[in-house]
Description:
The chain crosses the membrane at residues 20-45, 120-140, 146-164. The chain is an all-alpha fold.
Amino acid sequence: xxxxxxxxxxxxxxxxxxxxxxxxxxxxxxxxxxxxxxxxxxxxxxxxxxxxxxxxxxxxxxxxxxxxxxxxxxxxxxxxxxxxxxxxxxxxxxxxxxxxxxxxxxxxxxxxxxxxxxxxxxxxxxxxxxxxxxxxxxxxxxxxxxxxxxxxxxxxxxxxxxxxxxxxxxxxx
Length: 173
């Protein structure tokens, strides 16, 4: 199924505009930097400091679990390695494919922002979806890498949000 979806996107979604825009969109997600910057901006505001702290914690745990634990364990080669001959629109990323770190950090951040402030959540999910799709479009991830990365990010966010909520309840007693 991965190959079918990957080939469909490669054969039907490329044009002058998408070939220009998706490398920029994927760059926004590099190293989770956009989400880290959002977290730092939230930390500056007293009103949103807690949200920023939670977001940064979610991103750190997502990185540790996805990039440092799961990726080396699964060691799945990227699509451009498995199917050579495709012209890449970005420099070939190093490391393994599964799960997508871009998708994991983006969906972890989007879910966190949505749960802490609905106004931030909708635009965050739109950006997360574009970043995640860009990785398949650019032939550096399989769709299952994206799906599992997104699920991983949401689950980590959920558990950290529960942890913070429980911690706040116990400290108020």
